[in-house]
Amino acid sequence: MKIDIYHLYNYFEGVNFVRPVILDVLRLWSERKGWQVRTKSAKENGVDLNTNAEVVAFSVYTVAAYSAYRLAEKLQAKGKIVILGGPHFRGLHYQEAIGKCDVVASSVCEEQWLSLLEDIEAGKVEPGNSITKHIADTKNHFRYPDDLHKAFSSYSWYQIPAIPTTIGCPYDCEYCSALMAGTYLKRDPEVIYENMLHTKRKTLFIPDASFGLHKKHLMEVMEAIAPLKKHLAVQTSLARVGDKELLKSMAQGGVKAIAIGIETLTQKLGKHGAVSTPEKVEELIRRCHDLGILVQGNFIFGLDCDGPEVFDNVYNFYLNTELDYVIADNLVPYPQTVLYNNLLKQGRIIDQNWSHYDYRHVVFRPLNMSVEDFQNCLVSYHKRISTSKFFLKRLRQLYARLGFGFETAGLASYGLSEHINAKGKAKNFARKLPPSAPPLYAVISSAEKRHIHIEGKNDV
């Protein structure tokens, strides 16, 4: 049988360069059953509605939820079995997809996925069924395949393979809905080595939610892969970068770029054991550069500690320090998170149109700013960082540090995409769209509940 597996997105972004690892996982699992598989990251209009595959699956983030529902309806009308999964359907939020697809997966492990494919082969799951099958990996049996590298042969020339070193995240951040939250599992360093050995790509991405959290394990991984001389991009916290021994080990293992979750310069958050003062962050940036590592700072606008001055603080920090890149977006309270529930109780959610949960709209009321002031500040900030003068200055800084080469050109392309994104965000925030209707899942009738089949609670 045949299956098409998509990651849906709405805007040109990092997913165009680094394909979500879940596509590779589902590809390998499906191929173990002898299925023919196509995987692709695509916008709604990039999905093949005339496919000859019997099954079409979508990995869905909140911003693409409505796209997924529209596609599911069209594909079911053509006799296709439609599977919806991904972060938007974690927790109880899977209920929103009831009646809109044939299978909804809050999470899934290999055994459950293979069992689902067997049920489809046996005709136990058919398109347009009145009962929506729900799958949840409640026992946290999910594991990345040891032969993950076998999926990389299907990559386009410009795509960067993602090779994780751990699974899950032990933290419980209120604005996040991490896979296997509360769990932290370490992959075998030898397996990671084999994954990297068998890909010809020089540049790789490590998508760990908490990279370097287990110091001994990470140092073992870095020692194992150092001879491969790969160039690695990772995302981690200030606390990990602040550990000199760990940072040196990262550099020796091939880490060339680090995205650091700074989040705010307004107060000392002390997140994960770090103190995020501007002076401390500047010191860590210099320490990374001394080891040949580029640094991207990730900031969030609209935290309860933020006032209007936060925009100037971040802009001036980026302008006056050696930070190589910055990602600074407005806070988005995703509907399956503690943050969303808290803001909803406080009456601060002003827009429940999932298409607006895209870092291009204000969907909640900040604590220390009016919605209008927040929008105006976002417009001003994104206009400032998307000027040609600002972009060219950062480009010169990049070439001065790395020289000319294929990798530098790739990083310049990434910077250009963020430059274009900033322009688009400034335009969107200026539109000030009115709030929308309540979310689809707000009320679930008892009749609808009778059409739910829950798998995973007592099985596996």
The gist of it:
By secondary structure, this protein is an alpha/beta fold.
What can you see in these coordinates?
Helix 4 (189-197) runs parallel beside helix 5 (215-225), helix 11 packs antiparallel against helix 13 and helix 12 packs antiparallel against helix 13. By secondary structure, this protein is of the alpha/beta class. Residues 269-274 and 436-460 have low confidence and may be disordered. Strands 2-1-3-4-5-6-14 form a 7-stranded parallel beta sheet, sandwiched between helices. A 5-stranded parallel beta sheet has the order 9-10-11-12-13, sandwiched between helices. A two-stranded antiparallel ribbon has the order 7-8. 39% of the residues are buried. Strand 9, helix 5 (215-225) and strand 10 (231-236) form a beta-alpha-beta unit. The protein has helices at 21-32, 65-77, 110-121, 189-197, 215-225, 238-241, 244-253, 278-290, 309-320, 338-345, 371-385, 388-402, 406-431, 446-449, and strands at 2-8, 36-42, 55-59, 81-85, 103-105, 132-135, 166-167, 185-186, 203-206, 231-236, 255-263, 294-301, 325-330, 452-455.
